[in-house]
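re: that chain from earlier
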Amino acid sequence: MTDPTRAVLLLSGGLDSTTTLAVAKAEGHEIHALSFRYGQRHQHELEAAARVASAFGVARHVTLDIDLRAFGGSALTSDLPVPKDRTPDEMGQGIPITYVPARNTIFLSFALAWADVLGARNIFIGVNALDYSGYPDCRPEYIEAFERMANLATRAGVEGTAPVLIDAPLIDLSKADIIRLGISLGVDYALTTSCYDPDASGAACGHCDACALRLKGFAEAGLKDPIRYQK
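^ sequence. v structure.
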């Protein structure tokens, strides 16, 4: 049976997915959080996801294993070096090597399957089309297309009992606006991590695209990033 309050949420342990979780909770949703051990460079993001899920008291947090290292093609799922110290102009040119091919499509497909089982109408994803690294699966047209497909591929969508909604509340926000929104909702960003290449202790490198965008967002919001950075 469909439950209009129930939602599946993709949780990476990063700034954006954590803020999305805060938004979904503020809207009164019962959250079923979904994370992935997909062969990424480090496990610190999964530790962060577990911290965030616990702090927000989600109904259930599932971490699935899918090994995208079998395909490679990304600095996050292979031994390719993570780009560091790129300028804003460089980050705005093309699709970077940190893009994991079809990652959001894969993740959303698993979320869609779980939502169909749960009778959940909403699937939350923390993609953002302004301050991001040029990933094709973070754009509004991609989210709209996946939502159309989801309603062709599920029982609830076909029967019309509960059309699937792919909810991307941060899609049009700058990183600074996302941080301000999260702070207003009580998010503790010390729980999160964004770095592509942290050290063994989990301290962020401060030089990859993810760190650069995160630090820029905090600076523009007039706040200090509470996570640890390598010296």
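The chain has eight helices and five strands.
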